[in-house]
């Protein structure tokens, strides 16, 4: 088999703070998120997609929220670890497509930095990483500004 596919989804509630970590990029915002780690929904969704592609469980299995060593952790470290798991099995990310779901902040100005950061962490070309943003037209928890979500799809190819 030459390809594997995975998908991931993550949500964090907004809480105290003045910035969000999204795709490894610090984005100024009137709120932070409630999370055990740095709460980077984009990276968490991508990790789950990568793990899912090889049926390796999910991010919480590899980095349990009950484990104090992950408190405040840089989620890019999770991503590098997941990439290492894939590469140890002979796979790498062929491409990944990410959607961030929030009313605010507006993410257009940050998309290229996220693509660059994620591609560097995965050791792939920037063209292999897509980051998109959408609102939910003010509907639901995201529309009410209660939190932020991200979806990820990724294809693995032979390294
Ligand atoms: N947080 C966001 C949400 C959306 N965008 C950009 O706006 C476009 C329109 O959003 P709709 O939800 O009305 O479809 C979207 O395609 C994004 O380009 C954004 O930058 N940040
Ligand atoms: C990332 C981990 C790390 O403990 O905790 P959180 O930052 O709370 O994020 P979540 O998306 O709930 O994933 C579970 C955990 O693996």
UniProtKB/TrEMBL annotation:
It catalyses: 4-CDP-2-C-methyl-D-erythritol 2-phosphate = 2-C-methyl-D-erythritol 2,4-cyclic diphosphate + CMP. 4-CDP-2-C-methyl-D-erythritol 2-phosphate binds at residues 10-12, 36-37, 58-60, 134-137, 141, 144. GO terms for biological process: isopentenyl diphosphate biosynthetic process, methylerythritol 4-phosphate pathway; terpenoid biosynthetic process. It is an enzyme of class 4 (lyase). Its EC number is 4.6.1.12. It holds the Pfam family YgbB. Binds 1 divalent metal cation per subunit. Keywords: Isoprene biosynthesis, Lyase, Metal-binding. Pathway: Isoprenoid biosynthesis; isopentenyl diphosphate biosynthesis via DXP pathway; isopentenyl diphosphate from 1-deoxy-D-xylulose 5-phosphate: step 4/6. GO terms for molecular function: 2-C-methyl-D-erythritol 2,4-cyclodiphosphate synthase activity; metal ion binding. The record marks 36, 135 as: Transition state stabilizer. Its cofactor is a divalent metal cation. Residues 3-156 form the 2-C-methyl-D-erythritol 2,4-cyclodiphosphate synthase domain. It comes from the Bacteria. A divalent metal cation binds at residues 10, 12, 44. Homotrimer. Involved in the biosynthesis of isopentenyl diphosphate (IPP) and dimethylallyl diphosphate (DMAPP), two major building blocks of isoprenoid compounds. Catalyzes the conversion of 4-diphosphocytidyl-2-C-methyl-D-erythritol 2-phosphate (CDP-ME2P) to 2-C-methyl-D-erythritol 2,4-cyclodiphosphate (ME-CPP) with a corresponding release of cytidine 5-monophosphate (CMP). Belongs to the IspF family. This is 2-C-methyl-D-erythritol 2,4-cyclodiphosphate synthase. The gene is ispF.
């Amino acid at each position: 088999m030459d390809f594997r596919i995975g998908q991931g989804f993550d949500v964090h509630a907004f809480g105290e703070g003045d910035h969000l970590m999204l795709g490894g990029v610090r984005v100024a915002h009137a709120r932070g998120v409630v999370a055990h780690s740095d709460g980077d929904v984009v990276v968490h969704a991508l990790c789950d997609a990568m793990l899912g592609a090889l049926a390796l469980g999910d991010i919480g299995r590899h980095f349990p929220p009950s484990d104090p060593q992950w408190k405040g952790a840089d989620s890019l470290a999770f991503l590098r670890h997941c990439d290492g798991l894939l590469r140890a099995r002979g796979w790498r990310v062929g491409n990944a497509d990410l959607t961030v779901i929030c009313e605010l902040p507006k993410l257009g100005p940050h998309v290229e930095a996220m693509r660059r950061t994620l591609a560097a962490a995965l050791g792939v070309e920037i063209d292999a990483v897509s980051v998109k943003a959408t609102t939910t037209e003010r509907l639901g928890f995201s529309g009410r500004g209660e939190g932020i979500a991200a979806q990820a799809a990724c294809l693995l190819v032979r390294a």
